[in-house]
Design a protein that fits this description.
The chain is an alpha/beta fold. The protein is 28% helix and 19% strand. Strand 14 and strand 15 form a beta hairpin. Helix 5 packs parallel to helix 6 and helix 11 runs antiparallel to helix 12. The longest helix has 16 residues. The chain starts with 8 loop residues before the first strand and ends with a strand. The model has no long low-confidence stretch (mean pLDDT 97). It binds 6-O-alpha-D-glucopyranosyl-D-fructose (ISL) and calcium ion (CA).
């Protein structure tokens, strides 16, 4: 029971993991061929970003058929083989469940364009106002307004994300029944659970205009509302028939709201991805970057550790820039990469490692818009242009925040194509693959990869690290110290988040050091990290 409290979960972004048939696009046979890599790392489950049929406006987060595999990624047989082959290695498969919206290519949506069809109310359709304005003043997640006119139905439909991602209408009970069937379909195939995309915005209480805000005007009408809790409890009944696991991606949640979504007594989700710790390098919204503030980051992590019994721990995913240049240091690439690994694997909760994190992959090295694929970046560039932001500044904003930073192909080797593909990849390989790649790190016992394996094994064998209580001991703008404790056994983790020397009052026997230190007198070098007994 609760296997997910002891496991490390690895996120795969299928399009960028491993191409097996030379079309430049990662695929399921490619993933199967790399399962040994994941087994070696010691992961207990894989979260697969969407592999369903999709026109790829948002790389699979726009699903056109929940029961088909995107042909670019393989066949249903390939998927079934992946589930089997992973199981042989004691690795579970977690699917991405995107049910806030579907692609406008989905059969339901195409039918819904006809007002007399049985699918007419599967989406939010509204007339514009008599003065010609949109049905309400809401703004969407990708920076634009969120209504699109459909000439066939002569109405607007709601889309909180891209134009081709239409929001499903959960006021219509048939929609939830459809979703339950989709869950059963996949659970019967043997998947272990779901990562639930933007799950706390499912229920739109009303479609009235909202209070004007810098971003997401209207969100008070759908963020973490009771209607969503009700939906989750119903889905949970289905999930419980199969003992399935869920982690919800929950945007803009407070600890209190998160507890209501994943508290053990709530019978909703098992855990949630919160976002607050990802906001310590921004003003208000992610497009306005500021210098990373370590103290705010530590305080935020400690707060979530204190407020929730169990957290989903992550520093990277397919929507965020890479963690080393963000929270660590490019200059101290290896040291800070190892320090961040220590943080991710010693907090209380389930660690999620995003592909490439385990070898210290960095942000893309593109220099112009044309090299990007991300629909969000393209929308935002359009909005910035509308506000007459000059090109150089537009690029600066986008380069630092684009989701494509984390989506460049996995760097297996230092060759052209990085061992990901032998042809032109769908998104450019980072030129630093000559320095940063798995092949090189595999032969180096001092590499970031070796360090991840070592810490994963340490965690696997340590009840204190897996289940122990968390107590923060020191947090300033440089040093973060905390203790994990269980049944009288304690480990102290000491992290120097800076290129300058630092000090701490902690002493102890060194269990792990990212710089090969054998004894510890409280002095820390740049980006030094130790676990003390
Ligand atoms: O990317 C973001 C922050 O950098 C968010 O605004 C993101 O869009 C939000 O977290 C929702 O993400 C999820 O749903 C989106 C999809 O584009 C993302 O890839 C997915 O993780 C719509 O399905
Ligand atoms: Ca392929």
């Amino acid at each position: 029971m609760e296997w997910w409290k002891d496991a490390i979960i690895y996120q795969i972004y299928p399009r960028s993991f491993q191409d097996s048939n030379g079309d430049g696009i990662g695929d399921i046979p490619g993933i199967i061929s790399r399962l040994d890599h994941l087994q070696e790392l010691g992961v207990g489950a894989i979260w697969l970003s969407p592999v369903y049929k999709s026109p790829n406006a948002d790389n699979g987060y726009d699903i056109s058929d929940y029961r088909e595999i995107n042909p670019e990624y393989g066949t249903m047989e390939d998927m079934e083989r992946l589930i089997r082959e992973a199981k042989n290695r004691n690795i579970r498969i977690i699917m991405d469940l995107v049910i806030n919206h579907t692609s406008t290519d989905h059969y339901w949506f195409r039918q819904s364009r006809d007002r007399t069809s049985e699918y007419a109310d599967y989406y939010y359709w509204r007339h514009g106002n008599p003065d010609g304005s949109l049905p309400n003043n809401w703004t969407g997640f990708f920076g634009e307004d969120c209504w699109e006119f459909d000439p066939q139905r002569c109405e607007y439909y709601l889309h909180l994300f891209a134009k081709s991602q239409a929001d499903l209408n959960y006021h219509n009970p048939a929609v939830l029944e459809e979703v339950k069937d989709i869950l059963r379909f996949w659970l019967r195939k043997g998947v272990a659970g779901f990562r639930c995309d933007v799950i706390n915005i499912l229920w739109k209480e009303s479609l009235e205009s909202g209070k004007k805000k810098l971003a997401l005007t209207g969100s008070e009408h759908y963020l973490s509302l009771e209607g969503t809790h009700e939906i989750l409890r119903q889905l949970r009944e289905v999930l419980d028939e199969y003992g399935a696991f869920t982690v919800g991606e929950t945007v803009f949640v407070t600890p209190r709201q998160a507890r209501d979504l994943c508290g053990a007594d709530r019978k909703e989700l098992d855990m949630v991805f919160s976002f607050e710790h990802m906001e310590c390098d921004q003003y208000f919204i992610k497009w306005f970057k500021r210098k990373f503030r370590p103290k705010a980051f530590f305080d935020c992590l400690s707060k979530w550790q204190r407020e929730l019994d169990w957290n989903a721990i992550y520093l990277e995913n397919h929507d965020q820039p890479r963690s080393i240049p963000r929270f660590g240091s490019a200059e101290y690439w290896k040291e800070s990469g190892k320090l961040l690994a220590m943080l991710a694997l010693t907090l209380r909760g389930t660690p999620f490692i995003y592909q490439g994190q385990e070898i210290g992959m960095m942000n893309f090295d593109f220099d112009r818009m044309r090299q990007l694929n991300d629909v969000e970046s393209k929308n935002v560039e359009r909005v910035l242009r509308r506000f007459h932001i000059p090109r150089r500044l537009r690029w600066k904003i986008i380069a630092r925040t684009s989701r494509d930073n984390a989506r460049t192909p996995f760097q297996w080797t230092g060759e052209r194509g990085a061992g990901f593909t032998d042809t032109r990849p769908w998104l450019g390989v980072n030129h630093n693959c000559e320095q940063i790649n798995l092949a090189q790190q595999e032969t180096d016992p001092d590499s970031i990869w070796s360090w991840y394996k070592d810490l994963a094994a340490l965690r696997g064998g340590s009840e204190v690290l897996r289940r122990g209580a968390f107590t923060p001991l020191e947090a300033n703008n440089q040093v973060f110290v905390y203790r994990r404790e269980l049944n009288g056994e304690a480990l102290t983790i000491v992290l120097n988040f800076s290129g300058k020397p630092a000090q701490t009052a902690q002493r102890g026997r060194v269990l792990r050091s990212n710089v090969g230190r054998e004894s510890f007198d409280g002095q820390l070098g740049p980006w030094e990290a130790v676990i003390l007994e």
